[in-house]
Design goal:
Organism: Labrys okinawensis
CATH architecture: 3-Layer(aba) Sandwich
Distance between the termini: 24 Å
Number of helices: 8
Protein name: Sugar ABC transporter ATP-binding protein
CATH topology: Rossmann fold
Structural class: alpha/beta
Keywords: ATP-binding, Nucleotide-binding
Strand content: 25-35%
GO molecular function: ATP binding; ATP hydrolysis activity
Order of helices and strands: EEEHEEHEHEEHHEHEHEEH
Number of domains: 1
Amino acid sequence: MTLLVLQKVGKSFGAIRALTDVDLTIGRGEIVGLMGDNGAGKSTLVKLIAGNFPPTSGEIMLDDETVHFHKPVEARAKGIEVVYQDLALCNNLSAAANVFLGREIKKRIGPFRWLDHGAMIQKAGELFAELKSETRPRDLVRQMSGGQRQAVAIARTRLSKAKIVLMDEPTAAISVRQVAEVLGLIRRLRDAGISVVLISHRMPDVFEVCDRVIVMRRGHKVADKPIDRTSPEEVTGLITGAIQVA
């Protein structure tokens, strides 16, 4: 069942054409790899979906409804979450505090309000357990591994009942063991019925967890294939331009 549809989407920044007539569909509970060289248009495409800016042309549909996002909070309200490469975590705060950052649970008696730390710790623990992560709610983020930090960022997307999570290079610069942990987290999002768009330069990761791979080059979509009908060699050729289209 289709969740997200892009039809003839284009984006220009003055005289620079960043995207040209991109057609794209994402199914429910599907993991889609998004690959391409630097400047291929991946980041622009993700930012359009995430509501950082509107497309210059074309249409974006979510749940069979045309949507017009002008800022990320509008996309988030519709169930679109982003986990950026820098994760946007506060190192001096606990895992639970980071999960609820900007979305804190509060107690209120009359005119007085205060943070309900106990409720946030409990809920964060439930989210980490659901993700089968060893991350502990009270631990400070600065003490965590790359895989645990990804778990915190992913747990944050679960608060808003996300329909689709856009992940920007989640396995960059982490150890082999942590890569396996993060790929496991991505699978568990899919198992929960959440769609994932995995932006990555790591071919083994894409071929291990993705159902489909989409390749961008110079602002155009040059391939959109089931993962079992392509190969790392073909994808590399598409990224570099040795193969024009597939």
